[in-house]
Design a protein that fits this description.
Blueprint (H helix, E strand, L loop, with lengths): L2 H8 L8 H14 L8 E2 L2 H8 L3 H14 L2 E4 L3 E4 L23 E3 L10 H12 L15 H13 L9 E4 L2 H12 L5 E6 L3 H9 L3 E6 L7 H11 L3 E4 L13 H14 L2 E5 L24 E6 L11 E4 L2 H10 L9 H11 L2 H26 L13 E5 L5 H10 L2 E5 L12 E5 L4 H19 L7 H6 L1
Parallel strand pairs: 4-13, 6-7, 6-8, 8-9, 9-10
Antiparallel strand pairs: 1-3, 2-3, 5-11, 10-11, 12-14, 13-14
């Protein structure tokens, strides 16, 4: 992390009181919020003092305090690196435990849309009528039915990215596609760049092959191209996992100029960009973002997608868009333990593509209304919480203003509400001041869920002015 980058991240950190305490507080917030990931080398005391135009003794005192607290490691002359004290390791939230909760439970943790009935039933009947054509062929299908791959390719072409069926491989969900790319490309201990925060299963997949996640923090406005390019140049990660469209969990959309800069930086470092587009078409307002692959040469970007966020996660169907040669290598990697793609599910998906635009229009209208409803409910009942309503996607990324989301999850579960804390989306278990709230539930469920969260938050803070849990659950 250069002095200029560190200075921009610190922002306007001066406040009343000793300057070294204010500087230590600013660093501590960056580290615990995940914007300065653990293991990041920061500028020396002399360099940072010059950058911030303060006395070196101020920086020395701040660094010394942070070392004592466990937020910094190393010594002068050997480099200084950010760290997390033992008490700040990943927190296991109550919603992950098998604890009891009331029967009228509300799920504000999972961001899944309901199946589009009766269209799904029609697609299942249509698949049953056509499956006979495939019963005499190979049982294991590791690339995908050509007609489905063509439908997926046509969708990319309509989005301004000319694609052929030979550039598509069907997978059992987007997660499997990411796992295959990791197994093919990354070796043990290889750095793999990820956003911070990011989708937790993406990090788990990296760790499952003994890879090394390399988190790059997102700021209030999203990606910092200098930080991303610097990370590519210095660490030379073999892969970078990015979600530039309606990012999960923050909702950010990467601007075109940042896409260009990231693509150029990755090309220079030899980094393969893997772009997760599972939320790309859920734009609720404004123009739809251009695909990341449109900003790079063919073969530099691999795209993974899924039907789960537009149609139904129960289909468990995703895909990879890549060059035909890479598709062939990925297909060969699917060994005996991978039975391939379900022919029936692929036939259902192929039928659903005929109504893709109609379903997408309905999803956008419904999600837009539910997003606005959740925003209104939060501003009425929890005005202390801050967030920026996203232009698309499925979730709000809420700043609680204090690091209590783990305790809030425990209190909320006692009121029958499941939530995901910010630490679930952090590589090192930080972000305990954050909460991800999906807006996929009906308005009445969202309203009740927010009321229960308000009661849980009041209990966590020790307030008594809000309704009690017993009163809410009896209502």
């Amino acid at each position: 992390m250069s002095a200029d980058q560190t200075g921009r991240l610190l922002g306007d950190w001066l406040e009343d009181g000793p300057a070294y305490l204010a500087l230590a507080k600013a660093f501590r917030a960056l580290i615990t919020d995940g914007r300065l990931p653990a293991g990041t080398r920061i500028p020396s005391e002399r360099v940072l003092a010059a950058q911030c135009r303060i006395g070196r003794n101020t920086v020395t005192a701040a660094y010394s305090l942070l070392r004592t607290e466990g937020y910094l490691e190393g010594h002068r002359g050997a480099g200084t690196f950010t760290a997390l004290p033992p008490g700040h390791q990943r927190v296991r939230t109550a919603s992950q435990d098998a604890r009891r909760f009331p029967e009228n439970r509300i799920d504000l943790a999972v961001a899944q849309v309901p199946a589009p009935e009766p269209l799904l039933a029609e697609a299942v009947r249509d698949a049953a009528c056509h499956v006979g054509k495939y019963t005499d062929g190979p049982v294991h299908d590791r690339v995908g039915l050509r007609e489905l791959r063509q439908a997926i390719a046509d969708r990319y072409t309509r989005r301004g990215l000319p694609t052929s069926a030979d550039e598509i491989m069907v997978t059992t969900g987007a997660y499997q596609g990411w796992g295959l790319l990791l197994r093919l490309t990354a070796q043990r201990f290889d750095p793999v760049l990820v956003d911070a925060p990011t989708y937790p299963d993406a990090v788990q997949a990296i760790r499952s092959i003994a890879g090394r996640p390399l988190p790059v923090g997102l700021g209030p406005e999203g990606w910092d191209p200098e930080l991303l390019v610097s990370a590519c140049r210095q660490a030379r990660p073999v892969l970078a996992y990015l979600m530039p469209d309606h990012h999960n969990p923050t909702g950010h959309v990467m601007p075109d100029e940042v896409r260009e800069a990231v693509a150029a930086g990755a090309r220079r470092s030899g980094t393969l960009l893997v772009v997760d587009e599972t939320l790309s078409e859920l734009t609720l307002e404004g123009p739809a973002p251009r695909p990341m692959a449109a900003f790079a040469s063919r073969g530099q970007v691999v795209t993974i997608g899924s039907l789960s966020k537009i149609f139904w996660s129960g289909l468990n169907l995703g895909w990879i868009r890549a060059t035909p040669s890479l598709i062939s290598r990925l297909a060969a990697l699917r060994g005996p333990g991978d039975a391939g793609n379900s022919v029936v599910n692929q036939l259902i998906a192929r039928r659903l593509f005929d109504d893709y635009d109609a379903v997408l229009r309905e999803r956008r209208l419904t999600l837009s209304a539910r997003r606005d409803h959740l925003v209104g409910a939060l501003r009425r009942h929890l005005p202390e919480w801050t967030f920026s309503p996203p232009r698309g996607g499925l979730c709000l990324w809420v700043d609680l203003g204090e690091r209590v989301s783990s305790r809030l999850a425990c209190a909320a579960e006692g009121l029958g509400v499941d939530i995901l804390t910010g630490s679930r989306f952090a590589v090192e278990g930080t972000l305990d001041n954050r909460l991800r709230l999906p807006f996929v539930q009906p308005p009445d469920v969202l309203s009740e869920g927010v009321e229960r969260l308000a009661a849980a938050y009041a209990a966590v803070r020790g307030h008594r002015s809000r309704p009690t849990a017993h009163a809410l659950l009896a209502a």
